[in-house]
Amino acid sequence: MITTSNIYTKCGMVGVSHFPWGHMKSTVKTKWVYSCLPAFTSINNFAGQRFIYKTSSEVLFERESNAVTDGRLQNFPVSSYETAMEKISSLITRQRRGEKPPISNKLEIMSLYLKILGLDEDINKLNIIHVAGTKGKGSTCIFCEAILRECGFRTGVFTSPHLIDVRERFRIDGIDISEDKFLQYFWDCWNRLEENTTEQLSMPPLFLFLTILAFKIFISEQVDAAIIEVGLGGKEDSTNVIKEPTVCGITSLGMDHTEILGDTLGQIASHKAGIFKVPLEVTEPFDCKQMKGLELGLSGDHQFYNAALAVSLSRCWLQRTGNWGKKYQKDSNLPDEFIRGLSTAHFSGRAQIVYDSSPNSDCSEILSKNCGGELIFYLDGAHSPESMETCAKWFSNAVKRYEISSHSSFEVENAEESLENGHFLHESKTLEQLEKSFRRILLFNCLDVRNPHILLPRLVNTCASSEMTTLLEKDFKIDNKEILPPHEFLYDDASSGCHSHNYLARSAVIPSLPLTIKWLRDCVRDHPSTRLQVLVTGSLHLVGDVLKLLKR
């Protein structure tokens, strides 16, 4: 059993004093006030920092309406993929978080399902890496898969949730399982389980079925290494039907799913420890010098914890399967295959940056200075107080790097002007122009069981921790919820003559997420000198919906 040494502690607050995001150096603290508006998308405009809220009810409604019909599925006959999606949707239970699960003896039931499919013995033949934890378990699985694939092994990885297509949960050799193979294994499992249902044994709930399907896929595809992410907790999770894993891992712990796992780190840790089947070992911190100048494929400083655990898990897997001595010397250097895996790993919706140009733009290079306006989405599915802080640190660093890059490009382009007017004056002009050209937006949603009054201050305070500005609060309301706010909502701070040290706080309501994306694109199109930086966080479901809209 291998675990990381990074354990988060609980911290939450409802109303806090903070420094709003910005570039200027005022030392005046201000109170940030916000409210959660039901059933609509809300934008809070900080004239340089914008916040958009979206309620869980609307997100769930949109996802349910797209659960079966998806642009990706239209090429398949109704009798195959679309029908499979209908069957999967039928397994979704309407249980609310915190309620008693519909199946109390989950592992016993899992064993019966596996025996019906003839998989109960074959699971023990899989060389499994089993990973639990509050935060980072999916990323750790992705790192492990990429490392072992680079080492020459056939890999399978099972993660959750999916963002757009259910096939994302099942990767073979780093690629989502094909639709043909998915249908082959899906119908084999579905038909055999359905034939054996009784009054005492109904069809499994959704996550149990998908876990069973993962085992079916990996056994049938004869993978050398199967990397399995725990769904919830560990001890009572359906993946804990694994009795003989090659190695297990526990990522960082934090306060999430407390209504099920308990409201202390000790209680949560006991659930995670339920997958222990080997001696415990704590990983060493990851030394980025081992990457030989390359960066991790997954962004954010928190990924170094996940990378460290993945390196230890992969090394242990190679040792216990008798492959370490065959391939590598017993030295402290990180093998080249490990470096390639860590640097090429990819996981959608986790610290992901997506550049979206205006639909009417003729530019092929979105980042080109000649391309005019830009719409940049920063997507991360953070949804706990600890992960919101981590997300905020990543976003702050990412936008700073982008602005520094843009600043450098501007200086090169205007080198002649700098020589004429003097370096100091030129630098001031550059900063002023850059500040006017950037607008930051938060597109946020959290499920009803989570408290935005805890999550949002954690996010904003972290973003503001190194930047000081004065906030001027001002309401901006739209009486008719069907009317979109004017584009000046994002831009009129400059025209109003507001001093650049101050930021106006405003709010508005937009009826739906598709209209929000369209509105942002229209703003960029009509204001070609502006770059909008949109942070999308609070829910992986929201991240998936945004990615789906951006791909259309």
TrEMBL record:
EC number: 6.3.2.17
Enzyme class at the top of the EC tree: ligase
Catalytic activity: (6S)-5,6,7,8-tetrahydrofolyl-(gamma-L-Glu)(n) + L-glutamate + ATP = (6S)-5,6,7,8-tetrahydrofolyl-(gamma-L-Glu)(n+1) + ADP + phosphate + H(+)
GO biological-process terms attached to the record: one-carbon metabolic process
UniProt GO MF annotations: ATP binding; metal ion binding; tetrahydrofolylpolyglutamate synthase activity
Species of provenance: Glycine max
Name used for this protein in its record: tetrahydrofolate synthase
Protein family per UniProt: Belongs to the folylpolyglutamate synthase family.
Pathway note: Cofactor biosynthesis; tetrahydrofolylpolyglutamate biosynthesis
